[in-house]
Amino acid sequence: MNRKKMETLVLVVGTLVVAAALVMYFVFGDKPQRAVYSNIIFALGFLFYIAYNTITTSGLQKEIKELKGQVDTLKIELDKKRKELADLQKSYQDSQDQLMAKTQEAEKLEADLRALQKEYDELKAAQETEEE
């Protein structure tokens, strides 16, 4: 029986217990048995509630164990993902460092190329002046 049906059943039985106890109390009038019968009805209702509570608690404990297992699995998966992310961030940082080094090297080579181009232009201009 699923939980919702059981809760509805307990609600109905609880209402019937209270109604039966009240009927006993008022129907018997001043008879001394009315208190005894009312107490018996309340006791039976309370025993029913204890049984319901035990069954529900057992089911909830099983659910908690299952959910705890799922949480533990998710924690392990989260740790793996965090490690992967840290590795990817380190790899990204290494790539950024390499890119920065290559960019600096390219700038240095461009500066050297400009210097050589300037030197070449000066030598070419000097050679043209000598030929004239």
How would you describe this structure to a colleague?
- This protein is mostly helical and 132 residues long.
- It has one domain (3-131).
- The chain has helices at residues 3-27, 33-131.
- It is rod-shaped, with a radius of gyration of 44 Å.
Rg of Cα set? 44 Å
Amino- and carboxy-terminal Cα gap: 112 Å
- Overall residue-averaged pLDDT value: 88
Write the element-wise H/E pattern from the N-terminal end onward: HH
Largest sheet: none
Question: How would the global form be characterised?
Answer: rod-shaped
Range of strand content = under 5%
Layout of helices and strands:
Layout: H1 3-27, H2 33-131
State the main characteristics:
132 residues; 94% helix; mainly alpha; 2 helices
Quick take:
This protein is mostly helical and 132 residues long. It has helices at residues 3-27, 33-131. The N and C termini lie far apart (112 Å).
